[in-house]
Every structure is written in structure tokens, then in C-alpha cells.
Amino acid sequence: MQPSLEKLRKFFRLEHENKYQNTAIIGGLAKMLDYWEGEARADGITEEVIQAVVARLRSYEKISPDGRAESLKGLWKRIAETYPEAGQKPKQAQPPQQQRPQTPPPAQEASPENQGAAPRPASQQQSQPQKPRQNPPPRSESVVGAKHSQTPAALSAALTVLQGVGPKNAESLEKLGMQTLGDMLYNFPRRYEDYSQLKPIQALMYNDVVTVLGTIQSVHTRPIRGGKSSIIEVIIGDGTGSLRISYFNQPWLSNRFKQGDAISVSGKIDQYLGRLVMNSPDWEPVEVENLHTNRIVPIYSLTERITQNWLRKQMNSVITYWAPAVVDALPDAIKRAAQLVSIGEALTQVHFPDSQARLKLARERLGFDEIFYLQMGVLRQKRDWKSVDGRRFFSSDEWLVARLGALPFTLTSAQQTTLADIRKDLDSGQPMNRLVQGDVGSGKTVVAALAAAIVVDGGAQAAIMAPTSILAEQHYRNFVNLLAGDGGTISQSEIRLLVGSTTESEKEAIRQGLQDGSIKIVIGTHAVIEPDVLFKDLQFVVIDEQHRFGVEQRAELRSKGTNPHLLVMTATPIPRSLALTVFGDLDISVIDEMPEGRQPITTHVLRPQERERAYSLLRAQIKTGNQAFIVYPLIDESEKIDAPAAVDDFETLSKEVFADLKLGLLHGRMKPAEKDEVMLKFRDKEFDILVSTTVIEVGVDVPNSTVMMIEGADRFGLAQLHQLRGRVGRGSVQSTCLLIPTREDAIENERLQAMAITNSGFELADLDLKLRGPGEFLGTRQAGYASTLKMANITDVKLIEKAREQAQALFERDPELSQPEHALLAEAFERFWGGGKGDVS
């Protein structure tokens, strides 16, 4: 068991022995969160489990001893669902022993009560190897250009060479990704306090994002939601006025805020009942020496035993001495052309900036490096992909007219343009490497099916991989209808479906057919890339919702053919800045028109108290024979997150609100087979309403569903909301999407209002990128991309185009980076990309 979970178990046991009096730790169980969160992340504990622990422990002191027992018991069961080793226990409890065993005892039930039982003698225990603590990778290993042959050797020295850093502090710093002096250079601040531009409280304006200094005048905690949660309200003053700060459900903070203490708070100024307030701002105790410096002060991430002041002093000593000594791998010519500061200047100013202007230049230089190396990598990938030969597949105009004439609909002009791109790729003599991005329901499948028909007509085979069995089955039905129907050139027996639930005898027949060439097209899930699935002549690969697959899975499928043509599809519209960077190695086609007859979905944002109106609309639609989705952000109710949950509300909906209707429940903790069964029942109209989490966001086609009701809509990103909305409106009936935020004031949420205004996924994608960053778009497409972009603002198209322009110019002059002036750059580049950072798809 991971050390952080073992520590948790130890305190839970002690709390059980103390009869749940909140005395296992001085100051209460919540005090352990100060260091436990960092340890848990270092151990690789999932964020869901960490947040569950944080939520339960923060509210622990407010509940009765009986409630505490139930709370810890439920929490441990939840942990055991993710980490089964936490749920093991001895069959027989022994009297308490003073000495703890060498290995954690197995548990008979995942509950704190049972955790109180002492272990069996060591002779009766089965040894369980502990997983070693996983610290984050060293900072200098994960930053582009941080190491090469001219990096000063002293930067590889251990941190214990610093005055005041002993073995214990070095161990703590390792949890932050710092093992050497070089790592400290790249341990960038998480934010800054700008003491040079402080605003007095009386000068604050609504919507300001500011840092405010003040003295704590009062601290009050009040219960909300019937005592289930609480709000801490702190009033600070600075002589010109006072400001109220609120923290939701963090009762442990009341022990941290002391009347008379000086603190700085950073966040956005809101308004409540006409008064200016700050909700859950970042805060720091004010160090007196900073007040008089009039400087911009860095704020670093911390862990156990490390304070902000101590770490800042250590960082200052290393940065001041070593940052100017770092040798720049970026050639001078590129720095001049892009108007960039040196790496030494950038490192100095990003840690201890002299002004906001110099901080901006420092961040621009570090961000430029990230985009530049990324661009060089994708350019090389594109060149490598195009440097091999691909089989030519010619399709005549007459052949295409006949195929299109057999379709029961006319292609949109965007579909025709994309098909023309694909035909050109297939007949180019080089392997296709194309991304087709099209809005939900824009008709990507028909384009992929026609491309597969061209390849099959040329005597080869095609494979289509989808992320779920339901989506694979949907593609299978569409391919059969499009290619094996009236006027089709392929028989139905030549198109087969291969998923996990396919019977073994059928799988064997499909494997045989693929190997001897009698099966021309196979459509499936991960089952398609099993080692025993071999093709006679695989020349065309389609990967749907490509961000759902890892690099290895895509490579595995491609390796089953000889330089096959590759088409990847996504319904997640990709903003231009990402298309230029992360997807720069792909040729991109966009299907931005909806098929004729498809009606736009009307979207309404409702107040939480208007929920009954939404229920009435659902009931009216179901009466006319249609179906509806109700989607939730959480599976179970959380004390940490104030949002509705699917499992909890399903009971109420099925027994009280819609007692006369048939409801199904779908969520991420169900087994794949269970999920498929529920989804198929919904598709076959066995349920009127499907209550679900976001597991339905990708590709499920239920034409009869006309209402999408999204609870806690403010908890979702725009890309996700748009994907969910796209699950309805698949037929010809007018469909509706209802967005219900968690709170009344979230009604003005920018994302929700944007959803109501436009149905364009591309407009929403650009806004979502600005609001939430690139995470939702990247998926697992390029291993390491998300972690690479630490300083680059992925919405900064100007910086991206500057880096892209310089990378392209250099690539044209010296693609192998073999010229002497590029030697250091070549080293840093190979070090960054050598570990398989990317993939041609």
C-alpha cells in the first residue's frame, strides 16, 4: 500500500480507538491535510480519491461521533474501490500490540472500525510489497532545453550542498520535483504577489483581479445546507476600508486565521448584496520584510516541512548565482529574429522579476522554447511520415458519382471538400496522415466509409477503431447501410464487427477472414489491435475520437499494415492555436456544415428553482414517444463539491418525480458490459429517461432522444457541454438542451450563456480554450504535451505563430540540425523528443 494511504489508515485506527473524538491529531484530523495532499500526489494517488479525503476531513469536526464513524467508514470503502489492497484485513483480530508489523495488514472489510483491529503475528501474515513513493520527475528533466553538454556540472549537485538544506529538507524538496541545483532553476513560481502595485481596499472595483493586503479584523464560521456544510467569513481591513472574504466548506481554515494577523489575498473582486467580496482567494501570511521591498514576490508550491519564506531564500541564492551561468541552446540568430531575451535573463526574471514588463518577457522566452521544440518535433514527424512510400489508390470521378448516387442523401459541400482531400491523399504515393474534425452530427462517418470503399475497391483492407463497443456497433451499422446496401460494391459478409463481447467462435472466424483477405473491413474496439488479429493487406486505418486512444494503441494498429493510410476523426472542434501546434504534423480537414434537414438544437439556461419546468418539458416529450437524457457532473454526492450527483438523484427521480416512467442509470464505475447493456436498452426504447454522468458524451446515436437536461452545468467545460448537447437532435424532430447551474449566481456564467447563443462547436472551442486551457482537447494524443506546456499560453496565437515561423525557417535550412551553430540545440531537441514524446497520429 502507498505510504500516504498507510498513514491515513494509521490515523483512522487511532481515531477509532479514541471513539471518534477528533483527537488522533492535535488540532483535529483536518490538520493532516496540510501535508497529506502533497504526499498523496507524490504517491500517485488519483485526484478523485484525494478530493474525497479532503472533503470528508475538512467537514469532520462539524459532525457527531456517530456521523464521524460512518463518514470514515464510507471514505475507506471508497478508497478500497480504487486501491483494493486498502480493503484487505486479517480473518481474525488479535489483542492490540505495541509494535506495528513490517507490512500493512490485510483488512476483512474496508472500514475504519475494522482498521482498529490489530494485526496478526508476523508469522501468519502474507508479505505484501509496498509500492515505493513516486515523486514527480526532476524539474530539469521535464523542461525543454534545460540540459545539454555545456550545462555547468555544478547544477547536477545535490541540494544538500546548500546551507540550511539537510537530508530531511532535501527529501521534502524532492516531493516538489527538486533533486539538484539545476532543478531549482526550473521550479517556477505558481503565482506572484505584486507589492509594487497594491490597491487600497477603498479603490477596489467589481471584477478587479488584485492582491490586497490587510489585517484580520474578525473570523466567523456559519453552517449552511442544514449543517452539512459551512462558510468561513473573514473581514480584513487596511485603514481605507474593509473587505469580506469567504471560504466554502473549509472549516479547518478557521484555526489558521487569527485576529490581528496581516495577510495578503489574491483573487477576483465579486459583489454580494451591494458589497465587494472575494470568494475563496489564494492567501498568504504577510512577511514583514516583503512589505517594504515594493517588489513582485514569487509564491512557490510547498510540501511538508517547507515554508514559503525558507524556500524563497534558498531559491534566491541559487537563482542569483547560477541563472546567469546557464548556456543558451537557442541560436543567437533565432533570438534576434524573434526578439527574445537570453535564457539566463529569463530564468532570473521569472523567479524574481524587477517589473511586470520584464516578467512578461521572461515568460515569453520560456513559452517560446516550449512551442519551438514542439514545432520542430511535429515538423520532423510530418517529414518522416511523408518520406516513406504509400500504396496508391485511384478513384475515378465516374466511380465516385455512382457511389454518391447510391446514397440516400446528398453530401454537404464541406463533406465533398474533405472527400476530395482524402482522394488526393490516397493517390499521392505517400501515406495519408489526416485529421477530420467535424461538429457533432456533421457526417464524418460517411466520408470515412467512402474512403474505405476506395481502398477495398483497390484490393486492400480497412480497419476502423472506436473507443466503445456501442460506437463501434453504430459505425458497423452505418458502414453496412452505406457500402453493402442497394448499389453497394461490398457484400455484408465482407464487413465485420469485432468487440470484446463477440463470441470466441465468431472472433476466430473474423481472424481467419482478415488473414485470408475474405473480410475487407473490420470495425471494432481495442479487440482489433490484439496480437492474434493479423491482416492479409491492411492499407487504411480509421481512428474515431482519436484523443481517447494512447500513442501505443494507435501505433499498434498502424503496425498491422505496411505504411497504411491513416485517417483520424474527432467531434471535438480543435481551436486554431492547437491545430498549429499539437496537431501540426497532421493535414486537417474541417466539416463545418450540418446535413440538410438537421434542425439546430435550442438551448436554454434555467435557474435551479426552475427545475420543475424542465421536468414538465421532459414529461411532455416522452408523452409524444420521445426520450430524454439527464446528465450529472458527479456519480455520488461530495461534501467537497457543491454539485448534484447521478446516483443520489436517480433514487428521487425514479421513485418520486418520474415514478410512472422507466429510468435507466449509467455511470463510469459500471463495468463496460453493464454500460453497453444500459445504453442498448435506452437505444431500444426500454427506458424513457437515461440518468447518466458524462460517459455518454462520445458518439452514442439515439435518434429518438430529443431532450438533454444537464444538471450542475457550470461544472462542465464548453467542449464537454457541446458534446453532450450533440447526443440529441440526431433525428428530424426539434430538440432541446436545458442547462441548470448549481447556484443562482452561476446563471450568468459565460460558458452557459455562450451555449445558449451558438450551436457552432468551433466558436465554443476557441472560447473554452481561453477559459479552461488545452487539457480537454489534447486527451492522450501526444504523450507529454500537456506537461510540456508550463509557460506557453496555448491561446497566444501570436507567440505560437512566431515560434512556428522560426521552427519552419530553421527546419528548411537545417532539418537534421547538423550545422555547428545548432549543436547544442540538436542535443536538447533529441533529449526532449528522444523518449517517444509524440506520435504521427
Euclidean distance between termini CA atoms: 37 Å
Q: Total number of helical segments?
A: 30
Number of strands: 21
The averaged pLDDT comes out at 82
Structural class: alpha/beta
Helix content: 25-40%
Biggest beta-sheet profile: 7 strands, parallel
Q: How many whole angstroms does the radius of gyration measure?
A: 30 Å
Instruction: Please state how the strands of the largest beta sheet are arranged side by side.
Output: 11-12-10-13-14-9-15
Percentage of residues in DSSP E strands: 5-15%
Q: What best-fitting shape do the alpha-carbon axes yield?
A: globular
List the uncertain runs: 90-131, 779-784
Structure summarized in a few sentences:
The protein contains 30 helices and 21 strands. The protein has a seven-stranded parallel β-sheet with strand order 11-12-10-13-14-9-15, with helices on both faces. A six-stranded parallel β-sheet has the order 16-21-20-17-19-18, with helices on both faces. Strands 2-3-4-6-5 form a five-stranded mixed β-barrel.
